[in-house]
Amino acid sequence: MSTPSKALLTPPASGFSTTPVIQHDKRPAATDDLSLTRCNLLRRDFESLDEALLKHAAPRPFSLSTLAAAISDRCSPTAVLFYLQSYPPEPTKVTLNQLVENKHPLLFYAAERNSADIVRILLEFEASPEGCDTQNIPVLAYAIMRSKFTILNPLEVVKTLLARGARPYVLPADMWTNYIRPPPVEPEKESLKSTRLTRWCTAQHRRLLAETMHLSIRYYLVKATQMTPILARGLQLAREHNYLQLLKTPYLIIGQHYACNIVVEQVSSHIGMKVEVPLVLTFAGLSGHGKTELATRMGELLDVPLTTIDCSQMKSDSALFGPPLGYAGNAVGSQLNNFLATRDGTRSVVFLDEFDKTDQEVRHSLLLVLDSGEYHDRRTNKLVDCSKTIWILATNLGDTQISRWYREHMEDLTEDQRLRVPVKVLTNSLKAVFVNKFGAPMAGRMASAICPFMPFDLREQAVITHKFLLGLVEQVRRNIDTSAAEKHFPGHIHLAIQNDGRLCEHMAKESYISELGARSLKSAVNEVRRSFYTSFVHSDIPVEDHMNDGPLTRYNIQLQPVAESANEVIVVEDGMTEFFEGYDNVSDPMQLDKDDAVMSGMMGTMTFDRKADDSDSDV
């Protein structure tokens, strides 16, 4: 495969920094020459970048160029948020969807930074997730292709854009609909060569996408096609009730379509309809299939505090809530008691893990607070309002019924067919199991929102394996730091996963144990980590910090045949990875356009005019 020209994707640079913001993972030393100064932020030597940006917030006129330069120059997400909050919302919304210097939407700069936090902030201020530059290249495509030269994983940016409505079909569908297969460089059918949404995609762009659209990205593109579109009213209510991040739930865990849908529908309607009693969600299913992962993210999704209680040791009312008033130890309370008391009348999340291991006394003590939200602080006997508390009860109880139901009704279906299978019969059978184990009073409270967590199929197992591998990839991509505090020696490394779909599917077949779920796949990735480290230490060259100033050392994770029909996963060193190093490495900057005119309107000409901030539209 030929290597695409680096001119295809140059930094969204301000045009004045000769080093891209992400090169070597550090800020360039010559900060006085960066774009903010050229955009008349007039940053003094003693000012931080954030201080310089906020000094130019309201009442000064809103400047799209200034904000773009600040993002490009690595200001913090918090500074971006404060800057935007200083202006009236409606005019800001209009301005955010204009082109910076009549070339590129502001989201391109956040994508260049690979900052999902800044992308999320801009989207919350109603920047369009489908923004395109003057060549009609969508920000979703740019975020993916740019990783060719940064060697940074764009998955979080991609998921954030998809969750807010970016259409996956702006990318050629034949490259990702069969997500286990590597993306083909050439369209396989004449009819797939171009659609209205993909006319921007030239042969050069397809080559970049084929290299950068990894397995997890392809999976979430497919998942986005399975989601019900979020329309204007839904976004309006989510924004007003502060649950915008909840819409990202299906992109947090792999598989579990039914559980994610139930969570989003139950939580959003409960908040949107201002229901004045607690919401109880029951997460049921096999261990290692996403219950804890989703539950522990609920506080983040709703921007509220969360506490996790391990119920495996809860054998009494006092263990859960603390001793009643007048008993020894009463003044201390308990983790749950003190959490509820501090959240009196406000939204919060309580996660009761391994709830099936509680005793009857514990369950009985929960009945009133789960039903009406009334509770008395054990330390003071003061009435506490828990009506806005969201309770998540996680249990392995019912895993046999879920597994059997999955085998009988879903295992042999395609992914699209599974989405249409009703689960009412399954949830009814789980209610009967809960009544038998917990008794009717508690089962009645658990039955309002039962979220069954299904077994993973082979393709989902492969994506989970890839997720764990990406964790290893990102760990070794970090810079080397030999200081006594860090001792991070395996760093500044490009760990490439070869033929990721086939490799991860092979690892899943070899390692997945349904009773352990994702934990069994994590163990398989630990073997890859061991193999990498063994290869890494087999060198006579000491690790030194100055290596961060050079190209990345490349290692490949790949399948190696060991018999006629058997393979094993190995890690081998494979030289160095060169990546984009700025305009200084081009003898004639104008040659960038000549090399590839296709992208010259995208990032290659992304420079700020040297003009004052007040040339921009006022807000």
UniProtKB/TrEMBL annotation:
UniProt-annotated stretches for the region Disordered: 1-24
Molecular function terms, GO-annotated: ATP binding; ATP hydrolysis activity
Keyword match ATP-binding: yes
Keyword Magnesium attached: no
Stored Gene3D superfamilies: Ankyrin repeat-containing domain (1.25.40.20), P-loop containing nucleotide triphosphate hydrolases (3.40.50.300)
Domain of life: Eukaryota
GO cellular component terms, semicolon-separated: cytoplasm
Coiled-coil intervals, chain numbering: none
PANTHER family: ATP-DEPENDENT CLP PROTEASE, HEAT SHOCK PROTEIN 104
Name used for this protein in its record: ATPase AAA-type core domain-containing protein
Species for this entry: Peltaster fructicola
Top-level taxonomy: Eukaryota, Fungi, Dikarya, Ascomycota, Pezizomycotina
